[in-house]
Design a protein that fits this description.
The complex is a heterodimer of chains A (453) and B (252). Chain A has ten helices and 22 strands. With 453 residues, chain A is an alpha/beta fold. Chain A has one domain. Chain A is globular. The relative contact order of chain A is 0.10. By secondary structure, chain B is an alpha/beta fold. Chain B is 38% helix and 28% strand. In chain B, strand 1 and strand 2 form a beta hairpin. In chain B, helix 4 packs across helix 5. In chain B, 41% of the residues are buried. Classes of the chains: A alpha/beta (453), B alpha/beta (252). At the A-B interface, helix 8 and helix 9 of A face helix 2, strand 7, helix 3 and strand 8 of B.
Chain lengths: 453, 252
Amino acid sequence: METLTATDKYVDLFEQKRNEISNGDPQFVKEMREEAIASFRQSGFPIRKEERYKYTHLEPVFDGELTFDFNPRDIQFDDNELFRCDVPMLNSNVLTVLNGFFHHPEEAALTELDNGIIYGSLKEAIHRHPGLVEKYLGKIAQTADEPFVALNTAFSQDGVFLYVPKGVQMDKPIQIIHLLLSDKNLMVQHRNLFILEKNATAQVIVCDHTLSQHMFLTNSVTEAYTGENADLDLLRLQNEHNNSCQVTNTWISQDRDSRCQHGTITLHGGIVRNNLRISMEGEGAETNALGLFLTDKMQHVDNYTVIEHNLPRCTSNQYYKGVLDDISTGVFNGKIHVHPDAQKTEAFQTNNNILLTDTARMHTKPRLEIYADDVKCSHGATVGQLDEEALFYLQSRGIPKDESRLMLMDAFTWDVISKIKQSALQDRINDLVGKRLRGELSRCNNCAMHCNE
Amino acid sequence: MLEIKDLKVNIEDKEILKGINLSVKPGEVHAIMGPNGSGKSTLASALAGRDYFDITHGKIIYEGKDLLELSPEDRAREGIFLGFQYPVEIPGVSMVNFLRTAINSMRKYRNQDPLPAGDFLKLMREKKQVVEIDSDLTNRSVNEGFSGGEKKKNEIFQMALLEPKLAILDETDSGLDIDALRIVSNGVNKLRSPENATIIITHYQRLLDYIVPDFVHVLYKGRIVKSGDKSLAKELEEHGYEWIKQEVDAEM
């Protein structure tokens, strides 16, 4: 008898659950799912030989013993009691996604403000605003680009939708909290879609958390469109427990003169793979992509980024840093692709890493592909230890070795954190990273932001 | 206060210090001079507790304690201060945070409460005057982008804040113009007292015009080959190290 591959299993699962998954979907979503599963069937899970997945072999994780929810589970829990994710002084609209489904026990599934802003459940948005959603959903993150996007496109049923119409500035940030809570190993695939029209601005903070000890596997997709001269600030804070695996796929399309700041801060998580793809689809767009990860024990964090400079006068700055302890491993694979038409491109990329032990490993691979001749591009990557000279200097002033090490690590990470725009958020992240470095978050399997206790 | 007894130090199998003996009492200023490569900086590092070399023989007794048993931070907390020849730039660590952590760590060692923020800032302002530092120095990262003169002033500023019993100044005069040299020397002189001692390590005599030593020792090929009073420094200034080298090499 032929054994089923993991790919076969997911294709089978889709065949079996097709009706449940696409229940209530408009035709365009149904078609999108069919195309996606066909694409996934063809590509299958990435194999080790593929350069972009060389150090992160995910198929065995997806092939593990997992359960799937195709309907939101009726889980009773008090948001306030279980989980407080308020960032002090950061007055935000908090949206909760529980096990992949928009969680709204009291408030509406979709909030529609007088100024035209819409936010809430993606499923509900598809239902109420099919025309608006159809224009973007699955158009930014294309299934052919990436098997995990294809898999998510076939299966995902809900997530967060945000729409900011032309010229509207959101006064409060949206904070999306992805929660995982189950009594069994669970796989979750949610999907977020953010649309910022011309001259619109928005700030979105995404937090990924686990609330129970079980093994969670998440394969999420976030699509964002920034219209002409729009401004998106998107920060993701990953803090799942170390028995979880998370694959994030963030696809951003930037129109003319738009600005995007993207940040990925990884505090905890067993296996984390972040695919980030930013595509400049208009002239003069600007991107700042930040990344910071802290790993210990057997953690593995892989940041894979692609920046597509399609058109002239676009700017991208990438700044990724990692601190690796114990036997953890990290990967940074950053591609900057400057197309022939993209004259006057400015693209900079830096990746610096510190290994705290002889057994931690970091694989860093900057890749510049430049097909235009009038460009300014640079990249640099370092992997090293804490500066012994600096350590001794601090110690020679009476500061204990451990504290000296922490001061140097704080300084190293602050370099990234200082680039986060909102000062309240910056302080909070700095505090969390500080706690993480001091090992004070290690036993916390739920919310790192448990700050009111 | 400090007794160095027959100290021998190796760096990767090469003997750099070949038996150093030195005795320093409170209130004294000792100058250690010598040509390049004679082992001056290694001696300073050994006192402060660097560990890139092996101490193969000998003892250092400081205030009745075996100094070699103490970590660098504990040596500092016991009152030893090393003024670095090349102060290290530490991007991202602010001077204020650095100094506050250092002071409070010293206070903790002495079972004192942390210094309140207001008192700390007052203390900083006060001590900055010792080396004529303008105010914005303290808002920057430790030594980052400091000029050579600023770095050395910063060392003496830290010394003023930490109030060591035994200060070891390693080539503090190198790279200083005449004005900076005067400011740095003034700072050191202001901090002199009958209770504390200073070891000045230098290649040139000119620093000793400003900070007058009680004793001058010449270090050559890992040994103290000559000791005397301040007139020895003058002699070296006039005749260079050649005559000493010849004397020593003839004996060997």
